[in-house]
Design brief:
The chain has about 650 residues and is mainly beta. The protein is built from 10 helices and 29 strands. The structure holds MU-OXO-diiron (FEO) and calcium ion (CA) (2 copies).
Length: about 650
């Protein structure tokens, strides 16, 4: 998310010591550019060109669509030759009994059956696990957060809304969080929402969930409503996610600190909660209306959020599970890859300025013939340190090893996972420029890290992996695991790494760096989510370009290898105020699904006077977060 309400959570660091690590000190002795690209230049075709290079039309990209012109408009736009279609909007029916959407008379009961607010991660899944996508499919969407002043009439600004929110509003907002699962069906080359099917489901901030892994039953997980510390009501702030090899969804809790407020009456937890950004007066007013969100009444409730949640989309009765072995932080996504021996590797970003990149490797291999449904409960969580010699190391977060001792407050692995950030601080992980998606490219075997921005980084805090002070536009790193591209070792202790691009406008923003043929429409700002097509090309969705660069957020696409490497081209632009999330590309490249989140989230915009009424453009109807699908008009692959 970008600056939801009036509170800039990810941009307000909570890392007490975003220091320069030893490896980075060594780095200062090298030429910055030489060390960054030089180590990789021998293996990568067409490294990024010099900043300010004269743009060249066309260029060597394998993508042939006519590039969009950058704009900032009330509506969205897609590259010529493509069709976009609305799939589902906030308030559309998910369950068969859902009432018609009436934004002036919204109720918690209606919202619990309708598509939630602020769709972020999306996944398109077959109707049965392991099958190819047929004529029907399942669409999953996360609902990350609520914009009170855009959802309800008469709320004014975000700050005014916080004071005006009532218990009834809060009840609606709780139901607008979580996730939705709906059936969709093909219509020609495109897709449309099917009538509610057996698997359609709403998960909300009240859905009962199980806690598994090292934190289950931990004293800090116990509340008056759950004295055992093993069951929790709901999930919150679900940003990006992933899928598992056995067909379940991983949905990731990010800015959960918005929900909790009031004075903490447990000094033993003060440092842990401060490190997570949990505060007395949060952006939501929930703690004044719901006791479990008030720290003075339930000091432990916030520890039960901030996890990766596993949802089985094929069993509507299944209880979602919070997999605590994967650590607790502001999870962006959870994309999987494999070690050569079949162990599952989950890459994860912690989306806050000066926070870290993590990885989880399961203890045992995945067996496709006999999947272990609890594979994510045992394994190794580790955090990334980037060194100046072009290598990076995964540092294990294991109780009893290194500084993770009882003397430092880590008595159990439960302590480590609940306070994963503090454990990573002690291990000397590299503080990053807001890690968002971390995804493995299945074609070239490399891992791409979206670092969205970090204006707080000073010149003294610059390191090779975060090479710009006051980094307004972000950058993309590329990790290179050992092994052949077709069989990379994603569980390796060390990897090589380099820079893929530095965002911003070439020639204007210092250090912006892409392929030298990138056009004056092809530069981007604030990379957030990404996906790969069947050719291994990267599709990057952005969040924040409106405030950092004065252009709409959108989708840019580039080759990752060959002569067009890092030559980004503008494919889609969102309506004003919106970010683009969850790019999901079908395996045959016939469609890309996009989540258009928080349209109209602009200064001065409200339910009554929104900056856009996308996508309905009907008088009195506020903007509606929506999922769209884009196909090629002539039936070819997207991007052609
Ligand atoms: Fe919810 Fe990291 O954006
Ligand atoms: Ca974001
Ligand atoms: Ca995001």
């Amino acid at each position: 998310m970008l600056a939801p309400m009036d509170f800039d959570s990810e941009n307000t660091p909570s890392n007490p010591d975003p220091r320069t690590t030893f490896g980075e000190i060594i780095a200062q002795r090298y030429s910055r550019r030489g060390a960054l690209l030089g180590g990789l230049a021998a293996t990568l075709a067409g490294p990024a060109g010099p900043a300010g290079a004269v743009p060249m039309r066309g260029g060597p990209s394998t993508l042939t669509f006519p590039e969009l012109r950058q704009q900032l408009a009330q509506t969205d736009a897609v590259a010529e030759g493509h069709d976009r279609r609305l799939l589902i909007r906030w308030g559309d029916p998910v369950l068969a009994d859902a009432p018609a959407f009436d934004p002036r008379r919204q109720s918690a009961a209606a919202q619990a059956m309708q598509f939630g607010y602020n769709n972020d991660y999306i996944a398109v899944l077959p109707m049965r696990p392991g099958q190819p996508i047929g004529e029907r499919a399942l669409l999953w969407a996360n609902h990350e957060y609520t914009n009170t002043n855009l959802m309800f009439p008469g709320m004014g600004t975000p700050a005014e809304a916080r004071g005006r929110v009532t218990a009834e509003h809060v009840a609606v907002e709780l139901m607008a969080h979580g996730g939705s699962l709906v059936e969709i069906e093909r219509e020609g080359r495109a897709w449309k929402l099917a009538s509610p099917g057996r698997l359609n489901r709403r998960i909300t901030a009240e859905t009962l969930m199980r806690i598994s892994g090292p934190a289950a039953g931990h004293p800090w997980m116990r509340t008056s409503g759950d004295p055992e510390g093993r069951l929790v009501r709901g999930m919150l702030a679900n940003c990006a996610g992933g899928i598992t090899p056995w067909g379940t969804i991983l949905t990731c809790e990010e800015n959960i600190n918005f929900a909790f407020g009031g004075a903490l009456n447990d000094p033993a937890q003060a440092e842990s909660q401060r490190r997570f950004g949990i505060m007395d007066s949060p952006p939501y007013g929930w703690h004044r209306h719901v006791a479990r969100f008030n720290r003075s009444q339930e000091p432990n409730e916030s520890n039960r959020f901030g996890w990766v949640v596993e949802v089985d989309p094929y069993d509507p009765q299944s209880v979602p599970v919070k997999r605590t072995a994967l650590g607790r932080f502001k999870h962006e996504g959870a994309a999987h890859a494999f070690a050569p021996d079949g162990r599952v590797v989950i890459y994860m970003g912690d989306d806050q300025r000066f926070d870290y990149v993590y990885r989880f490797v399961t203890a045992r291999p995945h067996d496709p013939a006999k999947p272990d449904r609890n594979l994510l409960d045992e394994g190794m969580l580790s955090v990334a340190r980037f060194d100046a010699d072009g290598t990076m190391r995964w540092l294990p977060l294991v109780q009893g090893s290194g500084p993770l001792t009882p003397e430092n407050g880590f008595h159990s692995q439960g302590d480590v996972v609940i306070q994963a950030r503090r454990a990573a601080d002690l291990l000397g992980a590299t503080p990053m420029d807001r890690p968002e998606d971390v995804e493995a490219n299945p074609v070239n075997g490399r891992v791409y890290v979206m670092l969205t921005n970090n204006a707080n980084r000073t010149a003294e805090q610059v390191n090779l992996a975060n090479p710009r002070a006051a980094n307004a536009h972000g950058h993309v790193l590329e990790l290179i695991p050992p092994g052949a591209p077709a069989r990379p070792d994603h569980a390796a202790e060390t990897m090589r790494w380099g820079l893929f691009l530095r965002a911003g406008k070439p020639g204007i923003d210092a250090g912006a760096e892409y392929h030298r043929a990138t056009s004056d429409q092809g530069w981007l700002s604030c990379p957030d989510n990404c996906a790969f097509d069947s050719k291994g090309r990267i599709w990057i969705a952005t969040d924040g370009a409106g405030s950092t660069a004065g252009i709409a957020d959108g989708v840019w696409v580039a080759d990752t290898a060959g002569a067009g490497r890092a030559l980004t081209r503008l494919f889609y632009q969102a309506p004003t105020g919106a970010e683009v999330c969850g790019p999901w590309i079908l395996p045959d490249d016939s469609a890309i699904f996009l989540a258009i989140q928080h349209p109209g989230q602009d200064p001065g915009s409200s339910f009554d006077t929104p900056s856009t009424r996308w996508p309905d453009f009907a008088d009195g109807t506020p903007p509606r977060p929506s999922v769209i699908v884009i196909t090629h008009a002539a039936g070819g692959p997207i991007g052609s």
